[in-house]
Amino acid sequence: MITEAIKEAITTEMCNVLVVDDEPNVLSIIQEMLEGEDYKLISAYSVAEARSVLARHNINIILTDIFLGDGSGAEVMEEAQKIHPESLTIIITGRPTVQNAIMMMKKGAYDYLAKPFSIETLKLALRRANEKIRLERENINLKEMMSFYRISEAMGSTIELNVLLKLILDSTIKEFEADVASMYFLEEKGGGLDLKATVGIKDDSIHELVSDHSYSSCQRTVETKCPMIFNDPDPDYASDDRTIKSSLCQPLMARGKILGALIVIRTKNSHPFSQGQLTGLGLLASKAAAAIESSNLYEDLKGTYIATVEALANAIEARDSYTRGHTERVYILSKILADELGWTEAELGDLKIGGILHDIGKIGVPDSILNKPGRLTAEEFEIMRTHPEKGARMIESIPFLRPALPFIKYHHERHDGKGYPYGLKGDDIPLPGRLLAVVDTIDAVTSDRPYRKGRTLAEAMEEIKSYSGTQFNPEVVEACMRAYSKGKLDSLFQEDT
Ligand SMILES: [Fe+2]
Predict the structure, then answer these.
(1) What separation in Å is there between the alpha carbon of 418 and the centre of ligand 1?
(2) Structural fold of domain 320-496
(3) How many angstroms separate the CA atoms of 214 and 217, rounded?
(4) What is the mean pLDDT of residues 191-217?
């Protein structure tokens, strides 16, 4: 929920001062002394009352007596440090001793005033505290702006959802000095929450605690569409690194629609999150939600394109009765070899489109050649050899399909330069072409043809090996042999196992 404290922090620049003293006349004297100054004074007569004020208002400065009827000024200061970490406490007392002053300063008091004090002394102390708060706030704002800038920059570097989410959470943990960050997405049906990504949970002993806290906070945030800040109410837990010290939760909203929630948690870092950081996380969450929505739209678009690609691949296979199932097998085999060769996620994504589309140019080859039940004549073979270039022409104007081009153009090139259509040699052949040449041959050797029965996988491996360095790139052949010896190809060729 947006607390009153946040609203105050956002809407006013005035400094809020909590004056705590159990003597009513002291409060009225201070009020008189500060009349006409830019301070909003709020009074409390006891520790209990002060706690209640601190919970409801955004307090910047606390003026408190050391000795109060129901406790001490130290308790008020501790509570203030917990709820408003940016606040400063000035101790006032009628019994000044060096020990008292040292004790309170050690506990984090900013200044110390001995009763009776003059108007000037009070005003000076408040002005100094106010200036320190202002400078610290500027510092924090600058740091938060830099964090926001860095995370925003990182978000712009990818559109892949899983990569994007990990990047957002990694950057958030770093910039917010948190220990755990998680993102929950609202389920499309049912209204529950799905943990979409999380980083930082390593310690099993608090795993359940962190999960429960994350889920319930995000659920409340999604229901109310408002941010939440949590600071451990029990100071005894402060040194316990197996509990949740502080957390911030922000809804993920895009175009008025709630997508889920983002939560950051401190389990080891005992410094509580501030209201300013909650606001900072809000800016980040709105930027993240927009990036997530773009990524979702991109995924939808990609799905549509993949469906188009598959429809095109089906069109090839519908015409070429001898190679039915070839496209799918080639893709699966290519992926196994690409994994073995250590291709990146992005390269594997291109492989899916490239593997499916590599023979798309066969659409331009006449049926009489494509489905000829015997060996092709030299003239027919010349026509068949045009399919890589025909395929490239078909898709080069479609930006999304362009990653398939090297697969289409170079899959009939040979390592010794005797391939077609370009006659490229060795490492001049782009990697997709080197890979598909091997895969295509394995599939052709093991497939049945009207004029011959398909050979075994072991025989195909022998053939690949014997042409390593002439027809095939030796590195790809080696990767193929490794995959074969590990049994990775067995599932595709059940009859050989
Ligand atoms: Fe081909």
Answers:
(1) 15
(2) Hypothetical protein af1432 (1.10.3210)
(3) 5
(4) 85
